[in-house]
Amino acid sequence: MLYLETPPKLIETTIFSAMPDEFRRKQSTEWADANRPGQPTDCFIEGPSFDADGNLYIVDIPFGRIFKISPDRKWSLAAEYQGWPNGLKIDSKGRIFVADYRHGIMELDARAGRMLPVLTSRNSESFRGCNDLHIGSNGDIYFTDQGQTGLHDPSGRVYRLRASGQLDCLIDTGVSPNGLVLDPHEAVLFVAMTRDNAVWRAPFMKDGSVSKVGRFCSMFGPGGPDGITMDKAGRLFVAHVSLGHVFVFAPSGELIARIKSCAGNAVTNVAIGGASRDRLYITESATGTVLVADISVLDR
User: Fold this and answer.
1) 127: which DSSP letter?
2) Residues 125/163/170/87 CA torsion (nearest 10 deg)
3) Taking Cα atoms as reference points, which of 170, 224, 217, 173 lies closest to residue 197?
4) CA separation for the pair 114, 79 (Å, rounded)
5) Which residue, of 79, 119, 227, 255, has the greatest Cβ tally within 10 A?
6) What is the residue extent of each domain of the chain?
7) How far apart are the first and last CA of the chain?
8) With DSSP H G I counted as helix, E B as strand and the rest as coil, what are the percentages for the chain, rounded to 5?
9) Which residues pair with 60 in a beta bridge?
């Protein structure tokens, strides 16, 4: 049995902004019928990421939309297209990349409001369903190909698309690979495996491959870990899609805090922001709400 020296801190959230009624759609979609059967779905937001001007970009999966939320919390539609955008990340040059379940890896041309294909297949084979992505400091894009994988079919994949264009398959036995993030030294890749209810830890070898992949932490519940991020101190923030919390783990794997949703339980993804990078922004997908929490308390 694991004994903790101190109980995990409880950090509360407040509502940063909710999708305006004018953008909510009360209609069925193929995505909602498959992923949220019998549940009203007027939006399902995900993929928070900040640009250099402090605008927060998010996606709306079932309706193929990408929104921009300005620092004064005004929403605008950045793009709408025939796709299912899931993960979104903005690189150091301001390029906006999207992991799209239907199309693969895409790029948003924000000025034109249109999507451009970046990588739509591997060796002429379509992806199973791309979910999320992370961009390394050298421009390499790490992304997950989740599809409908799970314990019954542990064949989800984790890829690295090098800035040179080379595509590497790092993991091909994933149990629903989802959010992913590099550690501060970019020596280890962490991957949320939703239906394994765990986060895997994948150390890099000298040749760039991964080896000795293991479970960094395990959780519970009908859903599992979804989007993840990490701060400069190496603390891992894990959004759990059914427990209504973001769980915070120390580099040792110890659970040190839980951040509680003040909206619904569908906590799906996270992004660190704020002038001092001391705020955690959280998508609560079912209610179309972006939450915020003060994470500076972790240093007190």
Assistant:
1) P
2) -70
3) 224
4) 6
5) 227
6) 9-299
7) 28
8) 5, 50, 45
9) 45, 65
Tens digit of pLDDT per residue, the chain (300 long)?
445 567 899 999 999 999 999 999 988 899 999 888 888 899 999 999 999 999 999 999 999 999 999 999 999 999 999 999 999 999 999 999 999 999 999 999 999 999 999 999 999 999 999 999 999 999 999 999 999 999 999 999 999 999 999 999 999 999 999 999 999 999 999 999 999 999 999 999 999 999 999 999 999 999 999 999 999 999 999 999 999 999 999 999 999 999 999 999 999 999 999 888 999 999 999 999 999 999 999 998
Contacts of 273 (CB under 8 A, 6+ apart): 50, 54, 56, 279, 280, 281
DSSP category for residue 124 = T
Q: Which fold has domain 9-299?
A: Neuraminidase (2.120.10)
Contacts of 259 (CB under 8 A, 6+ apart): 11, 12, 13, 237, 245, 246, 247, 248, 280, 282, 293, 295
Helix (H, G, I), strand (E, B) or coil at 195: helix
Q: Which residues pair with 141 in a beta bridge?
A: 135, 161
Q: Which residues pair with 159 in a beta bridge?
A: 143, 169
- If residue 31 lies in a helix (H) or strand (E), which one and from where to where? helix 30-35
Residue position matching structure tokens 């209810």: 197
Number of C-beta neighbours around residue 76 at 10 A: 10
DSSP class of residue 184 equals T
Q: Is 155 helix (H, G, I), strand (E, B) or coil?
A: coil
Q: Which residues contact 233 (CB under 8 A, 6 or more apart)?
A: 184, 251, 298, 299
**Residue among 160, 154, 149 at smallest CA distance from 173:** 154
Only one residue has tokens 């979104």, namely 88
